[in-house]
Amino acid sequence: MKKIAKLSLLAAVIAVAPLAASSQAMAGDRYRRHHDQDMLAAGAIGLAAGLVTGSVIASQPRTVYVEPEPMYVEPAPRRIYVEPEPVYVDDYPPAPRPVYRAAVEPWSPEWYDYCAARYRSFNARSGTYVGYDGRSHFCTAG
C-alpha cells in the first residue's frame, strides 16, 4: 500500500511541474505564442502521469475467491433403539427364613446384666434408663 501512495504522489508532482513552469509571470508576446505549446506539453505530461498511475494501480496483485464445488456427504446411519424382550428366570433360590432371637425375660439375671452393660443410666429398681430425649424408657433386652 505504501508503494501505491509513493508512486501516486510522484505522478502528481510530475503532472503539476509543467503547470508551475508555465505561469503567467512571463508577460508579453512570447507568452501568447508559446501558450498553446505549453498547454499541449502539460496535457501530454498529465496524460503520461495518469497512464503511469493507472498502470501501477492495475498491476497490484488481487485475491480472487473461488467458491468450491458442493460435495455430497452421505449421512451416517441412524441407530434405532430396540427394547429387548423381558427374560423371566424361575430358578432363584428361596427366600431366607427369618431368624428370631430368644428374648430375655425381664427381671432375670441375664436381663439385668444386659441392661446394666448397655445403658449407663440403667436403674435396676425400676428397670428403666434415661434416653437422649431425657425421658425414662423400660429396658427390653433382645
TrEMBL record:
<protein>
    <recommendedName>
        <fullName>Lectin-like protein BA14k</fullName>
    </recommendedName>
</protein>
<feature type="signal peptide">
    <location>
        <begin position="1"/>
        <end position="27"/>
    </location>
</feature>
<comment type="similarity">
    <text>Belongs to the BA14k family.</text>
</comment>
<comment type="function">
    <text>Has immunoglobulin-binding and hemagglutination properties, and can bind to mannose. Essential for virulence. May be involved in LPS biosynthesis or polysaccharide transport.</text>
</comment>
<dbReference type="GO" id="GO:0030246">
    <property type="term" value="F:carbohydrate binding"/>
</dbReference>
<keyword id="KW-0472">Membrane</keyword>
<dbReference type="InterPro" id="IPR012413">
    <property type="entry name" value="BA14K"/>
</dbReference>
<dbReference type="GO" id="GO:0016020">
    <property type="term" value="C:membrane"/>
</dbReference>
<keyword id="KW-1003">Cell membrane</keyword>
<keyword id="KW-0732">Signal</keyword>
<keyword id="KW-0430">Lectin</keyword>
<dbReference type="Pfam" id="PF07886">
    <property type="entry name" value="BA14K"/>
</dbReference>
